[in-house]
Amino acid sequence: MARRLDAKADDFETQFADLLAERRDTTADVADSVSEILSRIRTEGDRALHDLTHRFDRFDTGQSGLALSSADIAAAEGTLDSKVREALAQAADRIRAFHTRQQPDTLDYVDDTGTRLGQRWRPVDAAGLYVPGGRASYPSSVLMNAIPASVAGVERVVMTVPTPDGVINPAVVTAARLAGVTEIYRVGGAQAVGALAFGTETIRPVDMIVGPGNAYVAEAKRQVFGTVGIDTIAGPSEILVVADGANDPAWIAADLLSQAEHDPVAQSILITDDPAFATAVEAAVETHLSTLSSEAVARASWDDFGYSIVLPDLRDAADLINRLAPEHLELAVAQPDDLFADIRNAGAVFLGRHTPEAIGDYVAGPNHVLPTGRAARFSGGLSVYDFMKRTSFVACTSDSLQAIGPAAITLARAEGLPAHALSVALRLEDRE
Amino acid sequence: MARRLDAKADDFETQFADLLAERRDTTADVADSVSEILSRIRTEGDRALHDLTHRFDRFDTGQSGLALSSADIAAAEGTLDSKVREALAQAADRIRAFHTRQQPDTLDYVDDTGTRLGQRWRPVDAAGLYVPGGRASYPSSVLMNAIPASVAGVERVVMTVPTPDGVINPAVVTAARLAGVTEIYRVGGAQAVGALAFGTETIRPVDMIVGPGNAYVAEAKRQVFGTVGIDTIAGPSEILVVADGANDPAWIAADLLSQAEHDPVAQSILITDDPAFATAVEAAVETHLSTLSSEAVARASWDDFGYSIVLPDLRDAADLINRLAPEHLELAVAQPDDLFADIRNAGAVFLGRHTPEAIGDYVAGPNHVLPTGRAARFSGGLSVYDFMKRTSFVACTSDSLQAIGPAAITLARAEGLPAHALSVALRLEDRE
Questions:
Q1: Does B115 contact A at CB distance below 8 Å?
Q2: What is the pLDDT of residues B78-106, one digit of tens each?
Q3: Inter-chain contact A411–B125, Cβ cutoff 8 Å?
Q4: Which residues form the active site (chains A, B) (predicted)?
Q5: To probe the interface with B, which of A399, A410, A413, A431 has the most B CB atoms within 10 Å?
Q6: Is A307 marked within a binding site?
Q7: List B219, B282, B327, B330, catalytic entry
Q8: CATH topology of domain B3-22+235-355
Q9: Which of A396, B61, B274, B380 is 20 to 30 A from residue B118's alpha carbon, by CA?
Q10: Is B432 annotated as ligand-binding?
């Protein structure tokens, strides 16, 4: 059973501070194993991939080849339930529509000195998408990771996905095709990250690697960062639901459980102004739990990390929300925009009683790859911008350099950088 | 003397690949010392700051206080040369004007299903700016790091700068005031990064830490990443100058030296289509070097890491440039826009013969904190966006949930996440 905190209690601030300081990450120290695997990929290339895939996935990529052929993909897609295929297509369309609105504009102008200034955005040349194998191999995550790359205009969108025992997940390859993935390799683990970062005979290197994975994959991404760009390292999922007493407790209980069922260390928190409603939600959680195939995981998360927080007035919730900086925030109240105006820190916000968080996981449109562990204080969800980079530019004329050059010379000299000063001064002297 | 590569040589591709693979970073392994310092800051707070500052900077912050008072600042500013003050003010105005154009727009729309979708940008609550002490304490970097935070609307812009032997750099504190820094603490090293990330009795924690520093500072930023956001870890500086034979060799030589003088492991590369011009530039480099107070550093960089590359046709330069992905790129040719159109990977580009790179270091307007070590393949310069984060939002109506909810239920079931499906299904059933 989740813990209950009462904002009127004397020790509330202490208890809330403890909640904030709670660490749910279970970080295994796999740095050395990962470093060894990455070094094998750099020196042995494909041979290391074949060997490690044989060992970890019990599958002979030397025989099958590392790439999934179009025949492999078509065969797998053929086995997918048509309802799931249609749902994936609808989701892909909606995700693409939202992300298309994220495309940034070029800036290019001439200022009053006659200096031309601007910045231009270009896609990265190649993006790598890591997709986990087994149960965490979510087709929705393939859509959410690959579509922003495709919308950004990335030429090569390269997916790696392990196929343990040779089994290909039909929904994952279908999602890949819908999302615009251009190459698929059947490898996983740190070795897949290494192949994407450094390249092998078969897999050309990429510039940016995204996607979730286990401790080995996360550590591999950390270690290759710098050689390539990476997205953030995701921690356990979280939801914060703000709900007044006018909600159906069964709906709110289901929302809390939709995060709890992801992971025993996921966290679900309810904030309400109605203690009786909190009790009703807690009861509904128990009722739902007994019906769910995900009961064990969801119960562990709710019992160990779940909270109900009762406040006298939900208008006071903003401060607690901003301190928690949740990955997902539901505002299940009549006028959610009033509270939303005061929210500074949240990955994604779900407004009103008819917007369960799960709609954002699949079909709403915005990305479901979001900052966890209070990282919403300084970062947002995965986006088209992550697959692009800015180049700034300047063009002086002989006249405009005359206007701004002297200050540059003064500052360069003050900083003890004479060649900086000289490079400007030579061009100014030329006029005299 | 720099090496000369000739694109017509049989082994050019091998030599160019070697250039690309060259590592100029000198990474000291300071992880353990840094981890110990960070742990002392967490447990001892101010006391550890006083102690470490006394040890490393020979200065008693227990006596002076950790914060620079407004009297300290005014006294230091009073000693600054008025010409430098005016140059800093002009630079600050121009940097602010450029960065003001980076402010992103809110997205908020209703799609054809009646679902409201969008994203909103907010500044981080507090940003920390690390400024090194001693010779690398550049006032221009204070402007470049703090102004984007100030333009983003960050409430607390907190600067740390060591004051070895108690000496305050007048240009640095003047730049801080011009840039909108709100708090200054006279601490440095890994301990300053720790104080910004975790907070102490005197220094409240921030959400994002930026700024250059030595190996200890870089490692400290790496270790606190996740607790706070960080900018990228800067490597040695680089310039790539593309110049035809119509340039003044003395100008181009000064441009190459303006990066070389930063660091013995900085890199300056000339690409030209005129071997005689390359020879003239190399001669001009020697002439300039003997006049520079930065000769020793600049000569080491030019001799060890400098290159001249001669191509038959500068129109073929784009491929080499994109593979090098330089931090700074000068296009000193008659029609720079033609070549610029083909450039995908560069941090900042300087167009035409009258735009020396140094103008971008000080007064042009765009940021001088730029990706190094080929990171321009996947990232751009420091910007207002780095001090803001996006929050996405969704609001379904009962009707719009009816339109998009069924696909979410199908996908949640296919992914084995029944509580996700339930949270949507309960809201749909309510209509029936």
A1: yes
A2: 999 999 999 999 999 999 999 999 989 99
A3: no
A4: 327 (proton acceptor), 328 (proton acceptor)
A5: A410
A6: no
A7: B327
A8: Rossmann fold (3.40.50)
A9: B380
A10: no
Tell whether the torsion through CA atoms of B290, B291, B295 and B298 is positive or negative.
negative
The structural domains of chain A, with segments of one domain joined by +, span 3-25+235-364, 31-106+124-230, 396-429
Given CB atoms, is B206 within the 8 Å cutoff of chain A? no
> Does residue A257 sit at the B interface (CB-CB below 8 Å)?
yes
Beta-carbon separation of B365 and A94 below 8 A:
no
- Provide the mean pLDDT of chain B: 95
Q: State yes or no: B50 annotated in a binding site.
A: no
HEC states along chain B?
Answer: CCEEEECCCCCHHHHHHHHHHCCCCCCCCCHHHHHHHHHHHHHHCHHHHHHHHHHHHCCCHHHHCCECCHHHHHHHHHCCCHHHHHHHHHHHHHHHHHHHCCCCCCEEEECCCCCEEEEEEEECCEEEEECCCHHHCCHHHHHHHHHHHHHHCCCEEEEECCCHHHCCCHHHHHHHHHHCCCEEECCCHHHHHHHHHHCCCCCCCCCEEECCCCHHHHHHHHHHECCEEECCCCCCCEEEEEECCCCCHHHHHHHHHHHHCCCCCCEEEEEECCHHHHHHHHHHHHHHHCCCCCHHHHHHHHHHHCEEEECCCHHHHHHHHHHHCCCEEEEECCCHHHHHCCCCCCCEEEECCCCCHHHHHHCCCCCCCCCCCCHHHCCCCCCHHHHEEEEEEEECCHHHHHHHHHHHHHHHHHCCCHHHHHHHHHHHHCCC
How confident is chain A (432 residues) per 10-residue block, as mean pLDDT? Answer: 92 92 76 94 96 92 91 94 97 98 94 98 97 85 98 98 92 97 96 97 97 91 90 88 98 98 95 97 97 97 96 95 97 97 97 98 97 94 96 97 97 96 93 55
Top CATH class, A3-25+235-364: alpha beta
Residue in chain A lying closest to B348 (CA): A392
- Respond yes or no: is residue B327 known to be catalytic: yes
The shortest CB-CB distance from B391 to any of A336, A347, A420 is to A347
Is B237 annotated to bind a ligand? Reply is: yes
Reported as a single tens digit per residue, the pLDDT across B238-283 is 999 999 999 999 999 999 999 999 999 999 999 999 999 999 999 9
- Between the CA atoms of A226, B194, A23 and A314, what dihedral angle is there, to the nearest 10 degrees? -110
Classified by CATH at the fold level, domain B396-429 comes out as 1.20.5
CATH class belonging to A31-106+124-230: alpha beta
- Residue A194 distance to chain B (closest CA, Å): 17
**How open is the CA angle A220-A223-A229, to the nearest 5 degrees?**
95
Residue A328 bears catalytic tag: yes
Residue recorded with tokens 């209980």: A253
Query: Which residue among B328, B330, B357, B368 is the active-site one?
Result: B328
Q: What type of residue is B193?
A: V
Alpha helices of A159-248 — where are they, by DSSP H?
A: 170-179, 189-198, 215-224
* Contact between chains at B344 and A255 (C-beta distance less than 8 A): no
What's residue B64's pLDDT?
87
**Chain A 270-309, residues with CB within 8 Å of chain B CB atoms:** 288, 291-294, 298
Residues on chain B touching A297 (C-beta within 8 angstroms): none
Asked whether residue A429 is marked as a ligand-binding residue, the answer is no
Please indicate whether the domains covering A3-25+235-364 and A31-106+124-230 agree at the CATH topology level. yes
Residue that is written with structure tokens 């990474």 in the block: B27
Which architecture, in CATH terms, is B31-230?
A: 3-Layer(aba) Sandwich (3.40)
Q: Which two tokens stand for residue B260?
A: 């070389």
- Does residue B406 sit at the A interface (CB-CB below 8 Å)? yes
Q: Using an 8 Å CB-CB cutoff, list chain B residues near A401.
A: 354-355, 359
For A14-52, the pLDDT digits (tens) are 999 999 888 776 666 888 999 999 999 999 999 999 999
